[in-house]
Amino acid sequence: MTPLKKKLVRELWGMRGQALAIALVIAGGVATFVMSLSTLDSLQLTQAVFYAEYRFAEVFASLKRAPKSLEERIRNIPGVDRVDTRVVAGVNIVLEGYADPVTGLLISGANGNEGRLNALHLREGRFVDPLSDDEAIVSEAFAETQELAPGDSLSAIVNGHKKKLTIVGIALSPEYVNQIKPGSLIPDFKNYAILWMAEKPLATAYNMHGAFNNVALTLHAGANENEVIARLDDLLERYGSLGAYGRHDQLSHRYLHEEFRQLESMATMYPTIFLGVAAFLLNIVFGRLFQIEREQIAMLKAFGYSNFSIGLHYLQFVASIALIGLLLGIAGGVWMGRGLSSLYVDFYRFPEMLYRLDPRIVVWAAAVTLGSSFAGTVFAVRRAAMQPPSEAMRPETPARYGKTVFERIGLGRLYSEPMRMIARNLERRPVKALLTATGIAAAYAILVMGLFFRDSVDHMIDVQFWLAERDDITVNFNEPTSYRAMLELQRIEGVTYAEGFRSVPVRLRVGRRAYRTSILGLQPRSDLRRTLDEHLRPVDPSSAGLVLTDYLANLLGARVGDPVTVEVLEGARPVHETPLVGTINQFLGVSGYMQLGDLNRFMREGHALSGVYLAVDAEREAEIYSRLKEMPRVAGAEIKHKAIAAMQDMMAQQIMVFAGITTLLAGTIACGVVYNTARVTLSERSRELASLRVLGFTQGEAGFILLGELGFLTVLSLPMGAAMGKALCAVFMQSMETDIFRIPLILNPRTYAYAAVVILASSLLSGIVIRRKINRLDLVGALKTRE
Amino acid sequence: MTPDFSNAAPKPATVFEASALTKSYDMGEVRVRALRGIDLKLYEGEMVVLLGPSGSGKSTFLNILGGLDTATSGRVSYRGTNLTAARERELTWYRRNYIGFVFQFYNLIPSLTARENVAVVTEIAAAPMDPAAALKLVGLEDRIDHFPSQMSGGQQQRVAIARAIAKNPSVLLCDEPTGALDSETGSLVLETLERANRKLGTTTVVITHNSDIAQMADRVLQMRDGRIVSQECNPTKKSAKDIHW
Questions:
Q1: Are the C-beta atoms of residues B154 and B204 closer than 8 Å to each other?
Q2: Which of A83, A116, B25, B128 lies at a C-alpha separation of 20 to 30 Å from B164?
Q3: Count of CB atoms within 10 A of residue A687's CB?
Q4: Helix ranges, chain B (H)
Q5: What's the pLDDT tens digit per position in A144-167?
Q6: Which pLDDT tens digit goes with each residue over A96-136?
Q7: Is the pTM of this model over 0.90?
Q8: Residues of A with CB below 8 A from B93's CB?
Q9: At B188, phi and psi to the nearest 5?
Q10: Test the A interface: residue of B107, B144, B174 with most A CBs within 10 Å
Q11: β partners of residue A741
């Protein structure tokens, strides 16, 4: 090893505390980078393999009923490769000894994968016997949470009749990687099931002999998806189609896609912050190192070392720290990536999670880490290497200090001497002080980002379920039903109040933009379901026209007053033009709203309802629910608070894990910044502090001058961090906004407080470590050192 | 007017030749005129002592000779090569191959042992000594694996001298080599320099403000206010051993 390499190794060891603190900050950035990208890559790989092996369809459509003979015509649409027609129906499920409402989907074609799209991956058991009428395969997540195995049985309310089904297999499908119920934010595995059965019993139950109500297609390579969708829509329109859609609008696929986007933003936002802070820390630490080694550098140059070899020596120094961080980060990232992937496996059901670390991610991580580390130091290294040796030999001129602004305006006598030293030091190097505070603020911001989700989701649940959807039970009818059905429900004992609603599938068009959704018709002054304005005040849909979720209005590019073309996808499929009369605020999904009577007139129908919202006596809820399930007219009933509780449970677990990781990461940054800044300041000012000690200052008083400055910067960083955190959350949220959900940016005081406590504790911890170094200051030695 | 002694007697080859050399630089808000016109020749194998109060320009002159600094005007050449016109890269090369420095505060690298401090330089030199041999020459063979912090000031300075001579330089430039040492250690260091000068024939320039040290020189130059105000040859050169202050 050359002497310079030995110098490097020994000096690195000598400043191991600082080097490690910086390496950990780098590691935090690299770890989040590697974690997000490797998880993303692994998920995409896993998804691609599953989709390909199990022939996930590319275009989907639901309709009312079409003859099987149509299949051939669909196949003849240019660009269509394979066609698979099915019977799909919503269903209520009854489990022995489980009172909560369970809903699900029944899908035909469970007798084998031969020739099928969206094929099943059997986890356990077998396919159903094509001739059986009581065998079913159930989705894995549901089976797992309900502890069901082949041989067990459950009942399904099939078209109003309770039917006992025997489970013969447990399966996964590329169509339901995310087994989420439409309109939910997160899946509720326990209460939502996908059941696959043979075709015959479903055809019998839903009057679909020789017919289908759902079709899936794959396309030839290079086919124009939009073209195929348009042709398919033309073909299916008269069969009650709700509009064909591609993978992008397929629920499970769409959630995965959103998850990927989140991982992508995570892979840029966090590493940028961490590596930025690390670059700043490297800058101040090496800036100080060059001051200390000024004369060594001069000596090396005097003996003929070139600027380049000296620059290289220090860049190797920087690179060593970066590499330690990089290696720790990669190891941490892989570990966290595996953890995250296994968390995803709970959420997204794949046959197996293929976790891999693509070497390109490592190369990228290395490039980004070395790049940012060098960016933070290259100017200081260059300056140090270029410094004329004769100049370096001369003692440095004393740092220039001046009176602070406060002193100049005559407030100087308000401070004590130590305060004056702190103030002048801060004012002498305002950029460094500001960057230090910014570094600590970044830690604060990371905490806020890690925790805000809890506040936002709490708020979302509050608004969605306590202000907007206030019913206890939502009842959906099989088909539009007269108002009398509502009166019937109202008479059930325990039902305190009922409001009917009409829901109509539509395609909305404004100019060239179109969107498939539904219009909800609400009773005037509806109390159980309210539409809210941006200030969360209930506003009734006006009778003059259509009200849209603000996000949807933006999506369509419609402003209040603009005409909207409404193509109804049900019944006689009327088409109307109606003005947009208002927008409302809504976090989950997007839809249109009208008054119930208006919608009925719009549909040219009498008093028809799609379902009823019920307020019930809590004690009788279970009893009411079991009665509802037995009613032939009722397609599904959902108990609100159970769904909310399930959602909150699931979120709570995730948020705990996330908050823990975030706290650790932010603590690393805060400690890294405070510790390094303090070490550098201590090194710069040890003579000054030792002199004060010699003059009779106590350890505490000497410590105050140094730590007071850091304390001040830490306190200064708190409001900066709060603002920065909020801004980052806003950027993150905005990038995550979609038509399926929009998470509001809500930050509760408890989040700010928690973040502040973590930052103060980290600073305090670093302060204690530094304070011990101040106490050990060698008074005589420090005065002898020539600097 | 600077007296010119260069033609007084047949001299060995000229190593340095300076003419009308000046140097000014900014120190904070003041402009310092460190050298105000120096004309001088230095010869092969000579031991020259440069005396003068602090601020007289000694170090600046030495730095320019050593290629650490460049003149503001005038000319200085090393064995006929003009240093004034040399670029940074050429100066680096020049220092690497021909010059050995000894500094007042030793400038050792604290994280390296005595041997490694010497090796830092022999590593890049064209025809160096073995670091251990260089350390033996300064009488530190038993301190070879000590770190600077484990050695006295005199020992550290001898390591610095070993470092300077280990590359077999043709010129040794010493800036107050005994400035930080007591008399006894100081003469030990001077003996080491004397030995290197005698044994290796290295042209040696020693800066000091201690006039006693002048007794060991072949030639003594006096500087004041950026000029050489006197030069005299020393007919009765004393051995470093016999010098005390």
A1: no
A2: B25
A3: 17
A4: 58-65, 88-98, 114-122, 131-137, 153-165, 183-200
A5: 999 999 999 999 988 778 889 999
A6: 888 777 889 999 988 888 889 999 999 999 999 988 889 99
A7: no
A8: 304
A9: -60, -40
A10: B107
A11: A588
